Amino acid sequence: MTQRKSFGSDNHAGVHPAVLQAIVDANAGDAVAYGADERTGHATAALREVFGADEAFLVMNGSGANVLGLSLLLRRHEAVICAETAHINTDECGSAERLTGTKLLAVPSPDGKITPDLIAERLSGRGDDHRSQPGVVAVTQSTEHGTCYTLAELRKITDFCHASDLRVFLDGARLANAAASLDCSLAELAECADVLSFGGTKNGAMGAEALIVMSPGLAADVPYLRKQQTQLTSKMRFVAAQFAALLHDDLWRANAAHANAMARRLADGAVAVDGVDVVYPVQANAVFARLHPRHIAALQREGFFHTWDERDSVVRWMTAFDTTEADVDAFLATVRATASG
Ligand SMILES: Cc1ncc(COP(=O)(O)O)c(C=O)c1O
Residue 79: which H helix or E strand, with range? Predict the structure, then answer.
């Protein structure tokens, strides 16, 4: 059964044909398990090269990459400063806190971004053994609000953090969208972090994420932590095949640039509809729009998407590598048709 295009999430999209083909190709014959196979070796070497990284490790999902990355960077008594809106704070069922034992120190962030000033506000209890001691700052790029930190903004955060004895973790579930939006390399973004995740799943993979370790001296613990945290998959070759396909000829960038362009088209069309406001800059593949609650209800009868903020009547629409202009235009026609409903 095929369904019409959903604007509910980039996770609703299927798998890019080249990725699916790579999985099929990887299916021939046997391969040594748990990442000791040739494909995994090649994929992780390619990731190291693209990112200029010390090491790269494959994992199965974004939440797992976040927990693994944070666990590498945290000492046992340390806390993580992050935006209130960070996925680790809002949508991972407290896994960072439960699995690493850390405390998240969330700061309000009007557009999904945090700044050195906001981080500094959370450093007041330093040296007081009654207080959680911040050790890591987590940033998300692109952010949960579909905005992107500029490279200058990211570098400011990193400089501030390193000068303040804080390490930087970057949640890159949608790093590809940010690189496409900023027209920069993955390595330029990665330079701003000690450890980061790189998402394949929202970029056309079936299920493939990577943990990228930038700072030397951290990677040795990853294999053990990854296993303890149940992120070491036995048939690793299929995760590797997905990254090989995404990295080949920069398919990741084409997928992300396309998704971003579709979000732009959607936002431009949506603001032309009476009663619809776009509430954050559209810099990646998400559009956050404010609509009358009656309008939201009418639209949601036509297809699923998330109401992001019920009180403020804000919804989230997302595009993906396979969203077409016709999909966007059809959705916009429905937005217009339901506007008075
Ligand atoms: C910013 C961000 N980080 C991490 C994740 C977690 O990914 P997963 O659902 O694969 O665990 C998501 C998923 O939506 C996300 O949006």
Answer: strand 78-83
Choose one of 10, 171, 285, 318 to mutate for the ligand 1 pocket test, by most ligand atoms within 8 angstroms of C-beta.
Answer: 171
Q: How far is the CA of 174 from the centre of ligand 1 (A)?
A: 9
Q: Ligand 1: residues whose CB is within 6 Å?
A: 61-63, 66, 87, 140, 144, 171, 173, 201
Angle (CA) 2 252 54, round 5°? 135
Superfamily of domain 251-337 in CATH is Aspartate Aminotransferase, domain 1 (3.90.1150.10)
Structurally, at CATH architecture level, domain 17-250 sits in 3-Layer(aba) Sandwich (3.40)
pTM score of the predicted model: 0.98
Q: Where in the chain do CATH 3.40.640.10 domains reside? A: 17-250
Sequential pLDDT tens for the chain (341 residues): 556 789 999 999 999 999 999 999 999 999 999 999 999 999 999 999 999 999 999 999 999 999 999 999 999 999 999 999 999 999 999 999 999 999 999 999 989 999 999 999 999 899 999 999 999 999 999 999 999 999 999 999 999 999 999 999 999 999 999 999 999 999 999 999 999 999 999 999 999 999 999 999 999 999 999 999 999 999 999 999 999 999 999 999 999 999 999 999 999 999 999 999 999 999 999 999 999 999 999 999 999 999 999 999 999 999 999 999 999 999 999 999 999 75
Retrieve residue 90's tokens.
């809002």
Q: How far is CA 297 from CA 170, 267, 289, 333, in A?
A: 35, 19, 14, 16
Rounded distance between C-alpha atoms, residue 195 and residue 191, angstroms:
9
